[in-house]
Amino acid sequence: MAAAKKPLSSAPLRILTAVPICDGHDSAVSTINLELARHGLEVIYLGYHCPVSTIVRAAIQEDVHVVGLSSYNGGHIVFFKEVVDRLRALGAGDIPVFGGGGGTITKADERVMQRQGTDRIFHAGTPLNDIMALIQREYGRVLKPNAKLRGDRALARAITLAEQGSGHRGSRATAKRRGSGFVVGVAGPGGAGKSTLIDELTSRFLRKSPAGRIAILANDPSHPDTGGAILGDRVSMIYAQDDRVFFRSLATRGGLTGISAATPAAIEILKHSGEFDLILVESVGIGQESDPFGLFSKKRRLVDAMLFVLAPHYGGRLQLQKIGLLNGADLVVLNKCDHTMAHTARAEITARLEANGKGQRLFGTVAAKHHDPGVNTLYDALAQLGSLEVSP
Amino acid sequence: MSSLGKIADSVDAYNAHVAAEVARARTDQKFAAELRERWAKIHETVDWTVSPTGTPLPRLALPPTDDPGAIAEYLLGQGVPGEFPYANAAYREMYLDRESGSGGGPATTGEEPMRLFAGLGLAEDTNARFHYLGKHQKSLRLSTAFDGPTLYGLDSDHEGVLGKVGEGGVAIDTVEDMVRLFAGFDLTRKDASVSMTMNAPAPIILAMFIAAAQRRFGHDCVPNLRGTIQADMLKEVQAQNEVIFPIDASLRFLCDMIEWCVPHMPRWYPVSISGYHIAEAGATPVQQAAFTLSNGFTYVELLRARGADVNHIGPRLSFFLDCGLDVEYLVLGRVCRRLWAIGMRDVFGANAKAQVLKLHSQTSGRSLVAAEFQNNLTRTAVELMLAYLNYTNSCHSNSADEPFTTPTAKYATLASHGQSIIMEESGVFKHMMNMFGGAPGLLILEKQVEKSILEVFREMDTLGGVLAAQEQRYQRSKIQEAGHNYEKQIYSGARPIIGLNKYKSDEPMPSVPLARTSPKKQRLQVERLQAFKKKHAKQAPDALHRLENVARGKGNVFAELVNTVEVCSLGQITACLTNVVGKFRPMV
Asked: How far apart are CA A347 and CA A345, in angstroms?
């Protein structure tokens, strides 16, 4: 097992990688992402066809050390400038931006781009190892408390400090019932559709609470050997790319409970801010053992409610019996319920919940479907639990 | 079992059938005599010609044998060019010189294979490039590349895209841009062919093309329009990432377009099933072939499920493969034609016309490097040879300056001349058809590549078929893995790239002229778009409302788009459809 607590200086370097708007070339950036993670970095990958606003929002909320953009179909001079300008405008001009684009970004372009604030360009033929070494050397600074930071940047930095084991320590006694925000844990096996469901719930929130804000903490596992991680929940979000959403990806950094050790403190920070009506906390994909949200321990309980997501392929009745979290979940969701196996799954899960005798409700959803009525029903139930707005 | 499993089984069954027939030819005297008679008849149809230096040559090379087993193996295993299973070629004579023929053999297709992809700046800039390239071609061939905003269905005035307007392709926002793009060309000419590399918004762009043609050539010109639109959404989801709508909706819009084109545009190919981008994103040649063919079979299934007749849609499908330098490219087109024909005939019951895979090839962009970029001319020339050895129906050659820029006129011309040197100057493809088919190396490669493709088919079959595998990111994972291996081979030196990791010189990177679109032009495009929107501000809401109603119901969206584009821009239409069907959730 990797050490749960590392010295401060060894906190992984966090990098945001993305491909600009109207560009789908992701072959180079996927190779770079893998290499970065292999070198122990935490990579928040935003995917291809990314607008400036999405990139800058993510850089701030994820409190990254550096932003790397991979551009292959032109327009880079204008695009990089817009990213740098917007970072500066939002008080995040200290986050450096570098780029690469094979031969499409020339040395002459680089000079113009550097004058406009881009840090550097990696040109065609630069060996991967050189790129890795340079990123670690140039961008691996320690992120420190900064009283001047405002808004999402301040929240993001507080979470960073919590991740480093310094700063805001989550004392469990105070984590409960202080500040505001209805906290919902979301757990379930990998591939059940947790991230998609969270994004769809977010779209309902944004529609039904026209002024409110929602926060999402998404946990993903760190690699046990390298300590690196590709934090890939943010990339599949459509609706959560919005200024009313605060989204933070957390790597587990050696913790084996299904969440990062900093999650309790991060929840407390979000609640304390008073900014959010709803806080969703996604665990890593989990099976039968763990209890990420402390449902079965009065002292450790982190959430106000828990939503457990399953897909029809859970492996039959016996496997279902073994999922302890089904006993503690407030809302149970059978996602992909349009699948041919869903009929049997629904009957088996219903029987399982009835045996619990706790009046737990089962919801059927097809999160991948646009405007799925099952997700609407689920959201309304969630909103009722948390006394959220349900304006039509 | 999904149809992929059945297709793999049908190929195995066909191969077993060929083996049995070969054995029978060697033991059954009557069958042997029939084969010899058929062989003699084929020989009788072969005309003779004379090379420019005086060597007499048959216009078709047939294996020099009288052995009934060998004859059976050739006729059933490969087929005479233009005959099932089409390993040797889709047609009998392909690129042969027409003039040198004599007597009553089948005519050549007369089709000029060269296509030159172009697109830069605003519509008038690309139009000027088309006119310039046209000087190097016998017939009218207009192959269009679009800029990023157009490929993603966004208007040029969309937030944050200004720098991308006219970069890497032409900016098209409205039907008026489309009129400018093809100004001065008679698109209704018999030898005209327009192709458009356009995918997610393909139905909108094709509708604009039709509307623009009608403005110039009258309402009745539509059946005369000839060409191809790529529109292959499966490979977008698997490799190229230009997707706007959720997969189901994307496939519905595509099928609506194909169904409309089949009766209304008899000379148009409404989809080009593409492996090019799959290979460029990293796939091995085998993966490229396996994913492309399986995507093609998936379109056939989808269209059949909507009630289409395989014999109506089969002839309207076209294919597009990458041709790189790996050895498998010697036979990739040959193997694909054979597998497609067997699958279409034996699993889908297609007739002869619907069994033929019509192939467009393009030399590999990924194989071109910035370091000592003049070497790219040689790379492209070798790839062209490989593509033509596979008897591709049409071919595009990349420009040597592509690692840096949208092709400049100088290198686009050299790319075009490269094809002319191979096809017109050299005698390799002019006098005798199928010079190399049946060579021992090719036969071995064909067998190995075919076997590996069937393995991929069976793996996808166990995952539930193409769409189910796609949902599990099977194709994406395989492509990415192969891409990483390729990069690792370059970094380790296991894959030599001359001038990059081998025989490097110390010369600094040359300064290459770049084709870039000026900010002034980008602003001009935005002004034109806004003038169009202002002009049609009154009619646009109604047109969009009608489109929305069709999209919400079960009607044919494409049929309505042909009206919508008269008064609405690309971005307005994309926004309207997104509102109805939602957005694509990115896959990584």
From this structure: 5
CATH for B117-433+469-492 (3.20.20.240, 1.10.10.60, 3.40.50.620, 1.20.1260.10):
3.20.20.240
How many Å lie between the alpha carbon of A42 and the closest alpha carbon of chain B?
17
Which amino acid is present at B463? L
Termini Cα distance of chain B: 28
- The amino acid at residue B88 is N
> Is B583 close to A79, i.e. CB distance below 8 A?
no
Q: Are A69 and A19 contacting, i.e. CB atoms less than 8 angstroms apart?
A: yes
Contacts by residues B183-187 (CB-CB < 8 Å, ≥ 24 positions apart): B183/B124, B183/B127, B184/B127, B184/B131, B185/B130, B185/B140, B185/B142, B186/B140, B186/B217, B187/B213, B187/B216, B187/B217, B187/B221, B187/B224, B187/B225
d(CA B588, CA B579): 24
- Cα separations in angstroms, A233 against A46, A95, A193, A199, A221: 9, 22, 11, 10, 11
Residue A152: strand, helix, or coil = helix
- Could you say which residues of chain B have pLDDT below 50? 100-109
B520 token code pair? 């002034």
Residue B296: both structure tokens together:
């093609």
Q: Which residues of chain B are in CATH 3.20.20.240 domains? A: 117-433+469-492
- DSSP assignment, residue B236? I
Cβ of A26 within 8 Å of Cβ of B588? The answer is: yes
CA distance A124 to chain B (A): 7
ipTM of this complex prediction, to 2 decimal places:
0.90
Interface test with A, best of B152, B235, B241, B492 (most A CBs within 10 A): B241
Which among A218, A201, A212, A216 has a CA at the least distance from the CA of A276?
A212
Residues A78, A55: Cα–Cα separation, whole Å: 15
Residues whose CB falls within 8 Å of the CB of residue B511, separated by 6 or more in sequence, listed in order: A106, A108
The closest alpha carbon to B236, from B303, B320, B169, belongs to: B320
Q: Check residue A391 and give its pLDDT.
A: 66
The residues that bridge with B228 in the sheet, in sequence order, are B195, B269
Q: What is the pLDDT of residue A178?
A: 57
Q: Say if residues A252 and A259 touch (Cβ distance below 8 Å).
A: yes
Per-residue pLDDT 10s for chain A (392 aa) are: 343 344 344 789 999 999 999 999 999 999 999 999 999 999 999 999 999 999 999 999 999 999 999 999 899 999 999 999 999 999 999 999 999 998 899 999 999 999 999 999 999 888 889 999 999 999 999 999 999 999 999 999 999 999 998 754 444 434 444 579 999 999 999 889 999 999 999 999 999 999 999 999 999 999 999 999 999 999 999 999 999 999 999 999 987 788 999 999 999 999 999 999 999 999 998 877 778 888 888 788 999 999 999 999 888 899 899 999 999 999 999 999 998 889 999 999 999 999 999 999 999 999 999 999 999 999 999 999 999 977 66
Domains of chain A: 10-139 (3.40.50.280), 172-385 (3.40.50.300)
CA distance B232 to B269: 12
End-to-end CA distance of chain A: 49
Tell me the three state secondary structure of residue B109.
coil
Distance from CA of A140 to the nearest CA of B (A): 25
Q: Do A102 and B241 touch (CB under 8 A)?
A: no
Contacts of B280 in chain A (CB under 8 A): 27
Q: Is B432 helix (H, G, I), strand (E, B) or coil?
A: coil
Check residue B104 and give its pLDDT.
Answer: 39
Q: Say how many residues make up chain A.
A: 392
Q: Is B586 helix (H, G, I), strand (E, B) or coil?
A: coil
B80's tokens? 């005479």
